[in-house]
Amino acid sequence: ALETAEENAQRLLGKSSLVLPHPEQCSIRKDLHQQCPRCQVTYCSAECRQAALEQYHQVLCLGPSRDDPTHPLNKLQEAWRNMHYPPETSSIMLMARMVATVKQAKDKEWWIKAFSQFCSKTANEEEEVVHKLLGDKFKGQLELLRLLFTEALYDEHLGRWFTPEGFRSLFALVGTNGQGIGTSSLSQWVHACDALDLPMLQREELDAFIDQLYKDIEKESGEFLNCEGSGLYVLQSCCKY
């Protein structure tokens, strides 16, 4: 997570004046955060920013076009936000990172082979996966996504991924193998507070504060509180579902 526990709670509660006790129990180190100097995307550390730059971010960096709604990558993300079923928010950009990784790689065939190791489906199974992600209008939506994806990221080494059949297969690959990743700096802060050795009265006051905080947040934001991402893991894809 890039938010501190207090920032996380303030956003979920819709109350910027909220102050959390025991701020030292928050594990987020904002002093270590770094931004891409071109597009201001924020990373948790210099190491994370450098790893992204070396693997895929050179292709996906929007530079001064970060807020330009006509940029192909922004058009792709906006279309995805308007059509997918929640909470699958990051699948399309996971696919974009796959393409960008191949485009940046010196050994493109190594990465293509690595991605081919993930569990695949038959054509009928692929269609079922896509239908679950996009709903009843999935065929028209998938074609729109393919056209926008092609406009933003086309690469001749990956020509098959941009055909109707190849794009559906890629979409189903991510839908089948993608692992949701949830983080919550507020939850981490609560666990750290639970471990504090406090006098009984202070413990009761802190527990009551946390209980009320969660009740208030649920009223404002609902039950799903994690920041969400998605990733591909080779070992997990070997498991039978």
Task: Looking at this protein, list some descriptive labels.
elongated, 241 residues, 6% strand, two-stranded antiparallel ribbon, transferase, mainly alpha
Sequence-ordered SSE layout with sheet pairings:
Elements: H1 5-13, E1 34-35, E2 42-43, H2 46-60, H3 72-83, H4 91-104, H5 108-116, H6 123-134, H7 138-153, H8 164-177, E3 179-183, H9 185-194, H10 200-221, E4 227-231, H11 234-237
Antiparallel strand pairs: 1-2, 3-4
Helix pairs in contact: 1-9, 2-4, 3-7, 4-5, 4-8, 6-7, 6-8
Radius of gyration: 21 Å
Give the oligomeric state: single chain
Percent strand equals 5-15%
Mean pLDDT: 91
Major β-sheet profile? 2 strands, antiparallel
- In the predicted model, the low-confidence regions spanning at least 5 consecutive residues are none
Number of strand elements: 4
Helical fraction equals 55-70%
Structural class: mainly alpha
Order of helices and strands: HEEHHHHHHHEHHEH
- Counted up, domains total 3
- Shape assignment: elongated
Gap from first CA to last CA: 29 Å
The number of helical segments is 11
Going across the biggest sheet, name each strand in turn.
1-2
Protein name: SET and MYND domain-containing protein 5
Keywords: Methyltransferase, S-adenosyl-L-methionine, Transferase
GO molecular function: histone H4K20 methyltransferase activity
Structure overview:
There is one protein chain. This protein is mainly alpha-helical. The chain folds into three domains: 5-29 and 185-225, no CATH class; 33-66, no CATH class; 69-180. Helix content is 57%, strand content 6%. The chain contains eleven helices and four strands; from the N terminus they run H-E-E-H-H-H-H-H-H-H-E-H-H-E-H. The chain has helices at residues 5-13, 46-60, 72-83, 91-104, 108-116, 123-134, 138-153, 164-177, 185-194, 200-221, 234-237, and strands at 34-35, 42-43, 179-183, 227-231. The strands form two sheets. It has a two-stranded antiparallel sheet with strand order 1-2. The protein has a two-stranded antiparallel sheet with strand order 3-4. Helix 6 (123-134) packs across helix 8. It is elongated. The model has no long low-confidence stretch (mean pLDDT 91).
